[in-house]
C-alpha cells in the first residue's frame, strides 16, 4: 500500500540557496535525523548529485537505498532505484519564489516491500515530512547566518 503526503513551508531564502542545501546530500545527516550516511555515486554535469546511496533509519527500521535525482531551477525530485525495505519512494520539492522568500512544497509517496503496521508507516512519513520542510528551513537559515 502506497502512502502519499504533502507539506509546505516558507523559507526566507532564494530557491538557489535552498537547492544548494538539498544538493549537499553528504551533510543530510546533520539536519535530518533519519539519515545515517549518504554517499554520492555519480553526479550530473552541473555537479549536483545524480545517484546516491544512503542509509536511513526510521521507526526502528534501517534500510540502504539508492535514489536518483532530477534537478530544475525551481525544484528537485528523486525516485527510488533500489532498497531492502521499500518498493517505491518518489519525492519532489517545488520552490516558488515570493519576493525575498520562497514557498517550498514537498510531496512524498512511499510503499514498503515488507508489511509495516499503518500507524508506524504514518508516523515515519510524518517525521520525514517535518524534517523535509521545517528541518530544511532551519538548515537553510543556519547556513545563511554563517
From TrEMBL:
InterPro entries: Polyketide_cyclase/dehydratase, START-like_dom_sf. PANTHER family: COENZYME Q-BINDING PROTEIN COQ10 START DOMAIN-CONTAINING PROTEIN, CONSERVED PROTEIN TB16.3. This is Coenzyme Q-binding protein COQ10 START domain-containing protein.
